[in-house]
Design a protein that fits this description.
The complex is a heterodimer of chains A (about 250) and B (about 280). With about 250 residues, chain A is an alpha/beta fold. Chain A is built from 8 helices and 10 strands. Chain A has a domain of about 70 residues. Chain A has a 6-stranded mixed β-sheet, with helices on both faces. The chains are: A alpha/beta (about 250), B mainly alpha (about 280). Chains A and B meet through helix 3 and helix 4 of A and helix 7, helix 8 and helix 12 of B.
């Protein structure tokens, strides 16, 4: 990883009342990489996300994106949650252009881009549909397109596939890898699912609670493009057991 | 579709018809005196037979009902938005607003008429507003208070301004609760107009009378057929207005019933300007 860091955190910390939610954390994310964060509930991963997104102000530390200080500032990253957060009163097309609508006037170029991206990823026939007419997987896809057209270099995805069934989930993971490769974005991806983190990422950060902190930073050298065959690859299995021990080691 | 229409129209109409038939049967069977309760057919005839005399009065109360309702809706939305956006104002005003509804309208109507001017339409409109605004305000506060917090956070992450978040997320998310309040207000509006006419009885419009005065006279003359007939008529106006507001709700919330946007919106979306 020789490319310069897109995102840099140094000494970022946060407490609520007397609980240290996030111990001072340093982190550098290379441009174009896919980095996963795994950890149990309460390990501070969502807090970390909210600080990067600008929703929470850290007590201490620096957050910089492309060298610019973004502490407490919004409008710099793409952001997607387990809930698709599509608005029911807008069509698929209008949901994809939501970020533009919320910050400025929606232009014909925005609409054209939304239509193009929806067609490219198989939702062209649903542009005029309301979200409720879509399946869970399709809705998450629309939510991701909405995130993509913000043109932010860094995308924060907080368990985006957590609510989907296993079959749809695997489909969505493969689709996400395709889109990521084509778009050249940098992805920071939170998940509970160890398999998912290995299948998707270049690098896996393992977090642990009380206080929330990064306990391991593992490189994933599995070659891309990846197929489902890697789920049984020895490298995959070894990495998985390593992460499992980090997450559950104390319990045995 | 046909079954839906049957359930929506035929069943309610049938239930009203059954009620009228039962009424007729009871009055005839038990020889109820006409000054106690008239036969429904007589009640209807008391209205249709005097239609040319009644119509200006009916038209007047319809205007008062609709005008007061629209004003009340505007006032209700205004209070709802201001109170939910400025917590201090909400704490300050909420108890007073609840108090205003705890007072019987019929009691407050007379001093209100004295203040705003006997015989003018102002007190009548004020009383309709008094009745209509409250359910609207309560529902708007509720709606704005229950917008998905994650959605508001998402807007924040995008760097959305407060105004755009309000207009593109909070307002549409509050449309359904708003209509719940409007529909409650719509059923009560006609009652408000009637009470207003009682309290402010002189020289309404150009007719020199009012429906409320007419009912009072009929009552004094033991003309129960006219009293019941006009009661039925007002119920009909109330129901019609409720249905009109309900219809407006259906038009305003297509996403609740349709799976695609309406045709005129669809054409714009499908416009092949991007070369596909």
């Amino acid at each position: 990883m020789t490319s310069p860091a897109l995102l840099e955190l140094s000494g970022v910390a946060k407490s609520f009342a007397d609980t240290v939610v996030l111990a001072p954390t340093d982190l550098a994310i290379a441009e174009g990489s896919f980095v996963s964060i795994v950890g149990p509930s309460g390990c501070g991963k969502s807090t970390l996300f909210n600080i990067i997104a600008g929703l929470l102000a850290p007590e201490a530390g620096q957050v910089s994106l492309e060298g610019r200080d973004i502490v407490g500032a919004t409008g710099h990253v793409g952001y997607m949650l387990q809930k698709d957060l599509l608005v029911p009163w807008r069509s698929v097309e209008d949901n994809i252009t939501m970020a533009a609508r919320l910050t400025r006037r929606v232009t014909e170029a925005d609409r054209a881009e939304a239509r193009q991206i929806a067609r490219r990823y198989g939702l062209g026939e649903f542009l005029d549909h309301y979200p409720k007419a879509l399946s869970g997987g399709m809705r998450q896809r629309v939510a991701f397109m909405r995130t993509l057209v913000t043109h932010q270099k860094l995308l924060l995805l907080d368990e985006p596939f957590g609510a989907l069934d296993a079959q749809t989930r695997l489909e969505m993971q493969r689709w996400l890898l395709d889109v990521w490769r084509e778009s050249g974005r940098t992805v920071l991806f939170i998940t509970h699912d160890v398999d998912e983190s290995i299948f998707l990422s270049d690098r896996i950060l393992v977090m642990s609670p009380r206080p929330g902190r990064i306990v391991a930073d593992l490189a994933n050298t599995l070659a891309r493009p990846r197929s489902i065959d890697i789920l049984t690859d020895p490298v995959f299995v070894e990495l998985k057991s390593q992460i499992m021990h980090l997450l559950h080691g104390g319990e045995q | 579709m046909k079954r839906g229409l049957f359930a929506k129209v035929a069943l309610p109409v049938a239930s009203v018809a059954i009620l009228l038939v039962l009424w007729q049967v009871v009055v005839v069977l038990f020889h109820v005196q006409t000054y106690v309760a008239p036969r429904p057919l007589d009640a209807i005839r008391a209205v249709t037979g005097n239609w040319s005399l009644l119509w200006p009065l009916v038209w007047e109360i319809i205007k008062e009902t609709v005008g007061g309702f629209v004003l009340g809706a505007v006032v209700g939305v205004f209070f709802g938005v201001v109170m939910s956006k400025i917590p201090v104002v909400q704490k300050l005003l909420y108890p007073t607003l609840i108090l205003s509804q705890a007072v019987p309208v019929i009691v407050i109507a007379f001093p209100l008429a004295a203040i705003l001017g006997f015989g003018s339409v102002k007190p009548i409109l004020a009383i309709v507003v008094w009745i209509v605004f409250f359910p609207v305000t309560v529902n708007v506060i509720d709606g704005l208070g229950h917008v998905d917090h994650d959605l508001l956070n998402l807007a924040k992450v995008y760097g959305a301004s407060k105004w755009r978040t309000f207009w593109h997320i909070e307002v549409p998310a509050t449309v359904s609760p708003l209509f719940s309040g409007l529909k409650i207000g719509a059923t009560y509006a006609i009652t408000g107009a009637f009470i207003g006419e009682l309290a402010s009885p002189e020289q309404v419009g150009s007719t020199g009378s009012s429906l409320a005065l007419y009912v009072q006279h009929a009552n004094a003359n033991f003309n129960q057929a006219a009293v019941f007939g006009i009661t039925l008529l007002m119920a009909l106006i109330g129901v019609t207005w409720f249905l009109a507001v309900g219809g407006l709700e259906v038009l305003s919330t297509p996403w609740l019933r349709r799976s695609t946007v309406r045709h005129w919106r669809r054409q714009r979306i499908a416009a092949p300007q991007d070369g596909h």
